[in-house]
Amino acid sequence: MTLLPEKLVRITGAGQSEVGRPSRRTPLQLTVDACLQAITAAGLRPEDIDGITTFPGRSGDTGGFSPVGSTEAMLALGMDPVWIGASTEGHAHLGAVISAVQAIASGMCRHVLVFRTVAQAQARLRSKSSTLLGKAGSSPRVEGANQWSVPFGAVSPANMYALYAQAYFDKYGATSEQLGAIAVNGRAMAQKNPNAIYRKPLTLDDYMESRIISAPLRLYDCDTHIDGSTAILLSHRDAASDLALPPIHIEAMGMAIGGLGYGLHEGDFTSLPATKAGDMLWSRTDLKPSDVDTAQIYDGFSILTLLWMEALKLCGPGEAAAFVEGGKRIGLGGELPMNTSGGQLSAGRFHGYGHTYEACIQLWKQGGERQVEGAKVCAVANGGYGYGTLLLRTD
């Protein structure tokens, strides 16, 4: 029987640079810091790594979205790989991981380094508008995906996802207090994460009193720009058993590509194409949602967390808001501890790569004060709607 590609691959190392708002280190320095951490954690050297890739590839804009490419990272690290992954686009945040899995499974590589670097906080020092949609370049013309939103006043993804939040509220009777539990829980977790950006205590009252950004989304419903880098090392299963850390199995993957980023909204705004990613993920494993010990769920905006929970079948449709209410069930000691690093709302925006990093930390039992006791199965959702993984530690 032919094995699925992910069954041939293990996660053998992970690293994260300092996270700054802003950082005094250059994007390339941050990249090298994270990559060397991941390589060293596995007990390897840069010359042992024969593949490297990143999302989405080096970007020429001035917004700090992707300031470092694979080639310059390779040269800075002194690597001599046989494979460099092509860039990925749009919401395929973890498309680089899928490409790396395929390269390893096909026999091209033994060890592939995947990294994600951002320098959006540095960019915002230069210009407050640098991270707005369609505003990072020098041309006044808006092109690509942003041409379908910016002319209508949606200059931030917050405007778009606010529509989803309001539709969800209207259909299921969800409340701002329920949504706020995600931000409050994330901040409580971030207080136990020394690398998180925001560690000041946050109460539900603080959340409710914060300003509206795009109704019904408030300030604390939105993630935060940062400078930093995260790296994940993937290895063939035959090369993983003798390395320094217990290998983490990629039990299953699911991906969904749709036109949401290009203004193609389908359905009633209370679900995402992520539902297809969830269906794909659970079709590739014998495990069930009830087997999940902890979840790292994408929280670029808090409404996405609710929608992803339902897409991954951790809750039924319309049930996620009640599940997170009060925070007890998603806190440490709850039935589904969630976003234990603080997530993107409090730890910083790595476009989902920070969630994968935190999943590894949990499965390697390196979480310290935020460690989920007995965690062996972790569900991870990355991106606005595109990619989910189920990670497993078997020893």
Note the main attributes of this structure.
395 residues; alpha/beta; nine-stranded mixed beta sheet; two-stranded antiparallel ribbon; 13 helices; 11 strands; 31% helix; globular
What would you say this structure looks like, in words?
The chain has 395 residues and is an alpha/beta fold. The protein has helices spanning 27-41, 70-77, 95-105, 120-126, 157-172, 176-190, 204-209, 237-240, 274-282, 302-311, 320-324, 343-346, 353-363; strands at 9-16, 51-54, 83-84, 111-119, 212-214, 217-218, 227-236, 248-255, 294-297, 377-382, 387-392. The two termini are 24 Å apart.
What layout of secondary structure does this protein have?
Blueprint: E1 9-16, H1 27-41, E2 51-54, H2 70-77, E3 83-84, H3 95-105, E4 111-119, H4 120-126, H5 157-172, H6 176-190, H7 204-209, E5 212-214, E6 217-218, E7 227-236, H8 237-240, E8 248-255, H9 274-282, E9 294-297, H10 302-311, H11 320-324, H12 343-346, H13 353-363, E10 377-382, E11 387-392
Helix pairs in contact: 1-2, 6-10, 9-10
Shape: globular
Which strand order do you get reading across the main beta sheet?
A: 3-2-4-7-1-8-11-10-9
Count of runs of 4 or more consecutive helical residues: 13
Estimate the strand proportion.
15-25%
Gyration radius, in Å? 20 Å
Helical residue percent?
A: 25-40%
Structural class: alpha/beta
Query: Could you spell the SSE succession in H and E letters?
Result: EHEHEHEHHHHEEEHEHEHHHHEE
Distance between the termini: 24 Å
Main sheet characteristics:
9 strands, mixed
* pLDDT < 50 runs, ≥5 residues: none
Number of strands: 11
Mean of residue pLDDT?
93
